[in-house]
Amino acid sequence: MAAGDYMAVRDAIKKIIPQSSYDDGSAGPVLVRLAWHASGTYDKKSGTGGSNGSTMRYKLEASDEANNGLEYARNLLDLVRQQFPWISYADLWTLAGVVAIEYMGGPKIGWKPGRVDDVDEQYVPPNGRLPDATQGEDHIRSVFYRMGFNDQEIVALSGAHNLGRCHADRSGFEGPWVPMPTRFSNTYFKLLLRSRWHKRKNSVGVEQYNDEDNELMMLPTDMALVKDPKFRAWVERYADDKDLFYRDFAAAFGKLLELGVIRGPEDKALRQYARAKL
User: Fold this and answer.
1) Which residue intervals of the chain bear CATH 1.10.520.10?
2) Is the pLDDT of residue 50 over 80?
3) 48 in helix, strand or coil?
4) Is the CB of residue 158 less than 8 Å from the CB of residue 225?
5) pLDDT at position 3, please?
6) Among 21, 112, 174, 252, which residue's Cβ finds the most Cβ atoms within 10 Å?
């Protein structure tokens, strides 16, 4: 395959998304989660973390409890990289998230290559930078403000919970957020507002919120979006306007994937300076 043929990489990613033996028959949601978690370690103040480096290849970051289960996505994408050894893991992981969202009916998201892979774990960002789903609005703002996001962007990005499900053996939580967890939509916001959610302990004794039929669930961080007035205003807008949500999600997710990305020799010098602070 010709180096730089990103359309061929996109096609190869699409082929691995249908997975009959995995969650709901699709690897799409876990590919989105990998792109998200690989990028969400960014710290705006120090310039450390983010999607550049693909540092989740190393045990120090892969063992962060927030990344439990992501080895499945990484292993699947290893098969793609065997076909295209010229692409960096950092580019492949982020591109896979973009392709998966589009494949599942979501918006087109701006993406460009140029990320590089770190050759060892010396620049792995500290564990604990990703959101803790047991927390409330103060924690959510602390995590996302650290990356440089505002309240509107926080809610837009939370709409990714329309995809996939939680597993008790990974996060302690269990169940899907929506009835069709392999299709991107604004259903998550509608359900947050219109369903009755009850705090219950799941099969492993972890408190979460379940609907009346005990089929769908929400996390404490999800419920914080409707309890906090500023967050709720955006939840209501996205529940009522799918096009607005798609537009804002595409912008926020594209921004997320660019966090920590350095291109050009001058920026590389800045990157080395920032990483010295780790």
Assistant:
1) 8-130+252-275
2) yes
3) strand
4) yes
5) 78
6) 252
Band (269; pLDDT cuts 50, 70, 90):
low
Residue appearing with tokens 């550049």: 52
CB-count burial class (<10 Å; 0-12, 13-18, 19+) for 17: buried
Give the amino acid at 83. Answer: Q
**pTM for the full predicted model:** 0.94
Q: Would you identify the CATH topology of the domain 137-250?
A: Peroxidase; domain 2 (1.10.420)
Location of each CATH 1.10.420.10 domain in the chain: 137-250
Determine the Cα–Cα distance for residues 94 and 187; give it in Å rounded to an integer.
Answer: 24
Phi, psi of 198 (to 5 degrees): -120, 130
The pLDDT tens digits for 143-200 are 999 999 999 999 999 999 999 999 999 999 999 999 999 999 999 999 999 999 999 9
Which CATH number, 1.10.3720.10, 3.40.50.280, 1.50.10.10, 1.10.520.10, labels domain 8-130+252-275? 1.10.520.10
pLDDT at 278: 55
Crossing angle of helices 187-194/229-240, nearest 10°?
120
CB contact at 8 A, 10 and 103 = no
Residues in the chain: 278
Give the residue numbers marked as catalytic.
37, 177
Separation between Cα atoms, residue 272 and residue 71, nearest integer Å? 28
